[in-house]
Amino acid sequence: MRYIIVGGIVLVVTLLVSKLFLALNLVHFNKYPIASKIEEDNSSKQLLTTGKSIYLVYCSSCHGKDGKGNNDKAQDHTQRMAVKSIIDIINNGSNNFKSIYPQGMPAGLVTQTEAKEVAQYVANSLKGDKPKAWEKCATCHNEDGKGIPFIAPNITTYSDELVATVLKNGKKGVIGTMPSFEGRFSEVQIQAVATYIRSLEK
Ligand code: HEC
Ligand code: HEC
Predict the structure, then answer these.
(1) CA of 62 to the centre of ligand 1 (A)
(2) Residues 159 and 198: beta-carbon distance below 8 Å
(3) Residue range 160-177, pLDDT digits in tens
(4) 3-state SS assignment for residue 94
(5) 80: CA distance to ligand 2 center in Å?
(6) How many other CB atoms are there within 10 angstroms of residue 192's CB atom?
């Protein structure tokens, strides 16, 4: 009987001490990265390499080798969107991406002054002071600007979804017209080119 009590106490103390060690982070389980993590890193490097070669062959003729848009011939990929493009979309609305947002974006949601403030905010990737009028955009683009599925796209960064949609539908905007590349790339190739474009973002 005595052994059982002593054994029990030892067990409880051992458990408590090990919990304490874990809580204080004295045991480093993550000292060695697990294999799946290493593969993940390799594959994102691989995506970047593949994406870059696709970009140089199919996209750089318009977007420039450096992705800066070739003196406004195409979108500058070092930022998600320039003020000029955002103001144009606010004033004129847009319905390029019918395959995924059939309703499009309606024109004239805000006043001209509000449009300027909100365009600055969006061009700056939603950093800095949030203008009051942003609430009218947030109903569709979400408070954080990352979009809502089937309602409106992510306007903070070039998401895989946006790049896939542009390649499928093409795009007509204030800068010019991008042709559709529908059926030209596999899903992984699209993910790769999106990964590369994100790497150009400031
Ligand atoms: C009713 C929902 C709705 C509201 C409200 C809305 N948007 Fe949009 N927005 C969309 C949709 C849908 C698209 C995709 C348009 C397309 O298919 O061409 C879009 C596209 C955009 C784009 C272009 C993205 C791209 O890659 O071409 C910008 C920038 C944008 N919206 C900014 C705003 C701002 C700023 C506001 C607030 C003044 C706003 N939106 C309000 C639905 C909305
Ligand atoms: C023939 C010229 C041309 C080619 C080739 C081209 N683009 Fe574009 N792209 C454009 C133009 C012009 C725009 C800007 C449209 C606008 O908003 O006025 C654009 C815009 C974009 C955008 C931004 C869309 C948005 O909603 O903000 C992305 C992403 C993009 N292109 C990706 C690509 C990729 C990836 C390739 C290569 C597979 C490519 N483009 C090839 C002309 C081209």
Answers:
(1) 24
(2) no
(3) 999 999 999 999 999 999
(4) strand
(5) 12
(6) 25
